[in-house]
Predict the structure.
Amino acid sequence: MANALYIPELLADVPRDAWPRHVAIIMDGNGRWAGARGLPRIEGHRRGADAVRHVTEECSRLGLAQLTLFAFSSENWRRPPDEIAFLMDLYRRYLVKERPTIMKNSLRFRTLGRRDGIPAGALAEVDRTIAASAANTGMTLCLAVNYGSRREIADAARRLAERARDGRLDPAAITEETLASALDTAGMPDPDLLIRTAGEMRLSNFLLWQMSYAEIWVTETLWPDITEQHLHEAIRDFARRERRFGGLGAPTNK
Ligand code: FPP
């Protein structure tokens, strides 16, 4: 599906090299979407999975390098057991249903987060999808499930400490790159753009290290209502921003 010639109307005058390469999304508002319609929360998640499908297809069509979606946080285990069970089964069913599309669009499937607590049936589909898509050459689709950024950083610190204890790593040689290579995201580019739906202005323990310089775009729209148009608006807004990474940006005459 990655097609160099696909440029939606809203992005027609935005130079392609100003588009983000890696977009990360906090998909929020499924519960509110359902509540507003007098439906159970799980209906919001079901519709949320449809939105995942549309947004993934559009990101792939736009030729982005990576899309990372926050599907279940390490804090989401505090939800009612029946909601958790539904979300885990939705994850499994999503992978079974979407695998042919993932392959058709040559997406590489990856995950972030710990495996413990995730039902065996879902993990089997995860492993199957990762293996089947490993040699694909299109966009990387990365789902963060049972993921928490602080825990990820603590896990990385522990791994480095163990290597140092065993004499395999000189503590004085630890750099930002050393730590980055011990994170779940080792080898992935950092997100350029974070999209958050449902209006909340927080990072919610998502990719804290990796998003040090990400641009943030928040919409009041609830995740199940998200459309391709919102994605185009976010990319358009991103392209207008001057990313200075702590420097002074483009030289001026001042
Ligand atoms: C946040 O909405 C959403 C989640 C915690 C789950 C995200 C899951 C999906 C988008 C669907 C399934 C995804 C896949 C990949 C199959 P919320 O429940 O916190 O909404 P609220 O803040 O309005 O209550």
Notes: The radius of gyration is 19 Å.
